Predict the structure.
Amino acid sequence: MQKTIEEIAQHLGGKVQGDAKTVIRGISGIKEACAGDITFVANVKYFPLVETTKASAIIAPEGTNAFGKNLIIVDNPSLAFAKIASFVVGEQEHHVKGIHPTAIIATNAQIGQQVNIGAYTVIENKAVIGDGTTIYSGCFVGRETTIGKKCLVYPNVVIRERTLIGNQVIVHSGTVIGADGFGFADVEGVHHKIPQVGIVVVEDDVEIGANVTIDRARFDKTIIGQGTKIDNLVQIAHNVIIGRHCIIVSQTGISGSVEVKEGAILAGQSGIAGHLTIGEGAIVAAQAGVTKSVPAKTFVSGYPAKPHDRAKKVNAALQRLPEYVKTIQELKEKIIALESKINNS
């Protein structure tokens, strides 16, 4: 990357404050940036770092104090910086090209135009791979699975039979899509496996992190909605329906038949009990344990999860518990003393 601030501003649709001819050669975080780097600031708590950063340019919102630094003013600094980062990363990435001779592809599989398949990947019967999709080495694509156009599947991903994946989906290494849901019937203390005969549907523009597991439905479909982003190490059980543009953060566990509505956010290590609904735009805080459905636009935290304001009060009371115990003990001793005095009078 070697662009002037003016060229970058034009690409982003922003306006320059400072020396527009300064050349930018790299990108970095605001704390780590050096001369020649471009960075960004979006959160008000980081605005003081504008004064101390060594970056040669900062993407910032209107009204930011420049402290004599070069700024590119945009409406959404985070999005603008993502565009620049994607541009730079795109220049650096060199994906596998062509179909490696060791790839095992069923004769009745349908492979689109400009598809790239790495070494030792297996494509089973009647699988369909869309135009421009890249599948790295060591992957498994089961029978009758469909992967759409311009998808990117990193090494060692397993996509089981009859899974349907849309266009422009990214799947990171170690992920398993379409494993059996966890279903057993207890008969006289013996656990009998319940067949899981449904499928998984992953809609367009979804990104799935590393070592994620998405189970096939017992019947019908497990669905990951368009534009949803899933972090590493997430478990999504059978018959879960996740709406459009949700965020699911690392180590979250979602039990069977949960419905997560559009735009909801499940923060790290949150757990959702089965057959619940997380409402549209709801936020589940980190490590929250959800045992009841969450209404739309509600922020819950704690265990069991409750509205965040109430959870904070409960937690504050718990932090003072040793003081309460001491006070109760002192009151108990005073009551005993008073009772003794009354009895002896």
Q: What stands out?
A: The first strand starts at residue 3 and ends at 4. The helical segments are 5-12, 49-52, 77-92, 308-319, 321-344. The chain has three domains: 3-92, 104-308, 310-345.
